[in-house]
Amino acid sequence: MKLTAVVLSLLSTLMLWAQSASTERQQKPEELAQKSAEAWLPFTDSGEYGESSEQAASAFKSAVSKDQWIHALTTVRTPLGKVASRVLKSATFKTSLPNAAAGA
Fold this sequence. Notes:
This protein has a domain at about 30-80. Residues about 1-10 have low confidence and may be disordered. It is an all-alpha fold. It contains 5 helices and no strands.
């Protein structure tokens, strides 16, 4: 009986995981990018500039040192004060950035 419960629990977990993975694969790149941004932006919004650097993509970290990022945000972002609201205006999927090296 216990073995049956364990097996059913494991199967349920695997089914939920498979459904979650399937849903994620179906999401548009813009939606995935928005999720990432929504997870990352609170670090900058709360003044945790060092943590925002650590949580950034590797391409970003290769281009901007942690100290450079902290200095830039302290200089530019801090004077703006607390975020009142944030609304996505648009999203477009691109495979490259303007004026950036390939793969950036």
